[in-house]
Every structure is written in C-alpha cells, then in structure tokens.
Amino acid sequence: MKSIDLIFRSNINGGLRHLKLSDVKSDLDADTVKGIMQQIIDSKMFADSNAELLYSKAVSAVYIDEQDHVLFEEK
Questions:
Q1: What pLDDT is stored for residue 75 in this prediction?
Q2: 27-70 pLDDT, tens per residue?
Q3: DSSP state at residue 68
Q4: 51: helix, coil or strand?
Q5: Starting at the edge strand that comes first in sequence, how are the strands of the sheet with 57-65 ordered?
Q6: H-type alpha helices, 1-75
Q7: How far apart are CA 22 and CA 61, in angstroms?
Q8: How far is residue 8 CA from its own chain's centroid?
Q9: By the 8 A CB rule, do 16 and 7 touch?
C-alpha cells in the first residue's frame, strides 16, 4: 500500500506538521500535489483554538511504500 506524507509549516511556533494519507494514487506529480496542498492551506480548515493555522505553508511531500515484513506467524 502506498501513502503520502504532506509536510507543512505551521503558524504555531513555525513548527512542522504532517498530514498522512493512505491508499493514494501513485502517479501524482509535484505540481499536482503542491496544488492540493495549497487548497488545504487556502481552506483554513485546520486551526487551533486560537485560530492559528496548523497548515500555513507547503514544505514537502513524500510517497511512502508500506510493505508488510512478517517476522513471525503461527498457524
């Protein structure tokens, strides 16, 4: 299964915030992902109780390939 980690700069102390999505398309290009991240930022949907944005600037996006590595299995 492939997932994507969208990394944003936060307005709260300038820290980094991760938005991880699983089971995503594996053929997205950088421009498409940047556009989606900008839509998330522009929506201002993610904020703390003081209305500080959790996602204020797109920093990076990383595909993550997750494979199960069975170490032990009893049947």
A1: 79
A2: 999 999 999 999 999 999 999 999 999 999 999 999 998 777 77
A3: -
A4: coil
A5: 16-22, 2-9, 57-65
A6: 30-43
A7: 13
A8: 8
A9: yes
One-letter amino acid for residue 57 of the chain: K
- What single letter denotes the amino acid at residue 13? N
pTM of the model: 0.83
Distances (CA, A) of 40 to 28, 32, 59: 16, 13, 13
Sequence letter at residue 41: I
Q: What is the largest CA-CA distance in the chain?
A: 52
Residue type, 32: T
- Please tell me the distance from the alpha carbon of residue 24 to that of residue 44, in angstroms, as a whole number: 23
| Helix, strand, coil shares, percent, the chain, to 5 | 20, 35, 45
Query: Quick one: tokens of 1?
Result: 């299964």
